[in-house]
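name: query_chain
kind: protein
chains: 1
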Amino acid sequence: MIRVVLPWHLRNLARVDGEVAIAVPGQVTQRSVLDALEQAYPVLRGTIRDHDTSKRRPFLRFFACEEDLSHESPDAPLPEAVVQGREPFLVVGAIAGG
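structure:
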């Protein structure tokens, strides 16, 4: 099981507390994790990735093992610690302002 931590507004939308655990068939990548997450929680479709392009929404970042994976290929394998469930995949809401 892959552990996923969502920001408060997405946890609230999906009606979950804390982190979620999802089964990801095949290779564990950003794309496969988000596909499985959206399948388990259809209300999240379009909130993390654009419906048409599947690109990450602005003001959301992806982290794992203290690394920013936001600009990595969505098909790059995630770290082994995430695959084994020792570390979570984090979806983090970025803050902007001046």
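note: Helices lie at 8-14, 30-40, 80-83.
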